[in-house]
Amino acid sequence: MPPRYRVPAVKRAFDIIELLATQDSGLGVSELQRSLRLPLSSVAMIVYTLQDLGYLERDAVTSRYRLSVKMLGIARHALDRLDLSSRCHNLLEELVRRSGLTGHLAVLRAGESMYIDRVPSEGLVQVSSYVGMRWPVHTSAVGKALLAFLPDSDLQQNLQKLTLKRATPSTITSKRLFERQLRSFRHFGYTWEQNEGEIGLGCVAAPIFGAHGEVVAAISLTGTTHQVSKEKIPSLGSLVKHYARQMSLRVGSSE
Asked: How many Å separate Cα 250 from the centre of its chain?
């Protein structure tokens, strides 16, 4: 990005964060100012703001600041996604080769499914998607897979936060019906949808479980409703479930 598009205050905030990341014992406001050669008032305002937001913590004895657990948690999420996608990528490629459909690996983020990996099909028909793309969980099979296999208490908490907006005439907008559908998917071990997120597209997905049996991600196959027809859903579901199980083993599941 050209320098003229940078917001000075944002750049200074990240300069402070990056410097504190190298200092285990933390730094005081004056030390930060001397190291970065920035105006003291500017450094102080940024530090106080980051502290108020929970990204820095202050040692009451030394008055030094260091990165908070909240900041470390953000970094951990990023590392987890990289590790997850790297461990599962070749299996996702194999799944796409066997099915001829586009494959996605997704995680649950703030009531939406977010793609952290994507392998396109080699066919003429291509699905328009990208890593980082988000879908409302109720309109995608991968989103349903991320919810359906949660413990009941976690499922209820997520459902309470959702707003089921209509994307197409086939979108489920009733929480009661949505919950009933999610629970029914548990019997199959995979989820599916047709025309619910986008008219003309269908999707089949299955959950990936971590070391403690928790849902950590989900994989899906997406294509046209002809490629993902009602007749093909059982065989595609079995295939996706098989690869989801292999990916679960890769990320620590014992089952």
From this structure: 18
Measuring CA to CA, how many Å separate 248 from each of 92, 185, 239? 12, 18, 14
pLDDT digit string (tens) for 93-140? 999 999 999 999 999 988 889 998 899 988 777 788 888 888 899 999
Helix (H, G, I), strand (E, B) or coil at 58: strand
Q: Which carries the bigger pLDDT value, residue 86 or residue 184?
A: 184
Fold of 76-250: Beta-Lactamase (3.30.450)
φ, ψ (nearest 5 deg) of residue 116: -115, -5
Which residue type is seen at 108?
L
Cα–Cα dist 72/70, whole Å: 5
Tell me the sheet residues that pair with 57. 66
Q: Is 3-67's fold the same as 76-250's?
A: no
Give domain 3-67's CATH number out of 3.40.50.300, 1.10.10.10, 1.25.40.10, 3.30.1390.10.
1.10.10.10
Cα distances from 161 to residues 16, 107, 114, 167, in angstroms, run 35, 17, 17, 18
Q: Are the C-beta atoms of residues 166 and 132 closer than 8 Å to each other?
A: no
Look at the pTM and tell me if it is higher than 0.85: no
Query: Two tokens at 153?
Result: 């208490």
Pick from 200, 204, 180: which is nearest to 192 by CA?
204
Task: Look up residue 116 and give its amino acid.
Answer: I
Q: How far from 227 is each of 101, 127, 185, 234, 237, CA to CA, in Å?
A: 8, 12, 21, 13, 13
Q: Where are the domains of the chain?
A: 3-67, 76-250
Which H helix or E strand runs over 69?
helix 69-99
Q: Taking Cα atoms as reference points, which of 49, 37, 118, 117 lies closest to residue 84?
A: 117
Distance CA 108, CA 38 (A): 39
